[in-house]
Amino acid sequence: AQTVTQSQPEMSVQEAETVTLSCTYDTSENNYYLFWYKQPPSRQMILVIRQEAYKQQNATENRFSVNFQKAAKSFSLKISDSQLGDTAMYFCAFMRGGTSGSRLTFGEGTQLTVNP
Amino acid sequence: GAVVSQHPSRVICKSGTSVKIECRSLDFQATTMFWYRQFPKKSLMLMATSNEGSKATYEQGVEKDKFLINHASLTLSTLTVTSAHPEDSSFYICSARDAGSKGDEQYFGPGTRLTVT
Predict the structure, then answer these.
(1) Nearest to B93 among A42, A45, A108 (CB)
(2) Which DSSP string corresponds to chain B?
(3) Residue B111 is nearest to which of A43, A101, A106, comparing CB atoms?
(4) Disulfide: which of A39, A69, A70, B48 matches A89 by Cβ 3.0-4.6 Å?
(5) pLDDT, tens digit, 9 for 90 and up, residues B62-91
(6) What phi and psi, each to the nearest 5 degrees, are found at residue A95?
(7) What is the pLDDT of residue A60?
(8) Bigger pLDDT: B104 or B40?
(9) Whole-angstrom Cα distance, residue B24 to residue B3?
């Protein structure tokens, strides 16, 4: 079974600064995807960024980037130029690849607060 | 982009009654839908995987007779909480996998807050 661990229950950052959220996972699979989801106070889950395990290049989406260390099974999220709207719960998630209808396994989440 | 809706967004029901929550994929076909439960400030807990035209697969510890799931079409899955009790009060979220996408991406509904009095 896969497990996803987020060791930072809460973090805060000043507006315009950079923050990194940590995530580690455990799996024996070789083909998988990793995701970061954002859940703002509205509770709508929003996909922030995704990474295919077979890709060595780290994914980036505007101010969001990941540091994917496959051997270490680490998948951290870096948010640059933090904005007040980034305040949310962030979940790291794992999905096996190659199987139709694969389930997501979520970490426990990190509550990020961006302070003005 | 792919949109998933849930109805109702909020529901209050009396203990002992049943309540149905609908999850619809609005602009894509979803062969697989997932139902999650989320407690305040906690992560999403997968309850069951719903495949169109077949029986749902329930996670360990989830009572299939209490949480009835039906996925009768490629755009609609329903979760019925039968004989609801106050401990069933929670936030329920569905997600749908786009059958036409290559990346196994799931799209989430906005959630339904259930309060059982």
Answers:
(1) A45
(2) ---EEEE-SEEEE-TT--EEEEEEESSS-EEEEEEEEE-TTS-EEEEEEEETTSPPEEPTT--TTTEEEEEEETTEEEEEE-S--GGG-EEEEEEEEETT-SS--EEE---EEEEE-
(3) A43
(4) A39
(5) 999 999 999 989 999 999 999 999 999 999
(6) -140, 130
(7) 96
(8) B40
(9) 8
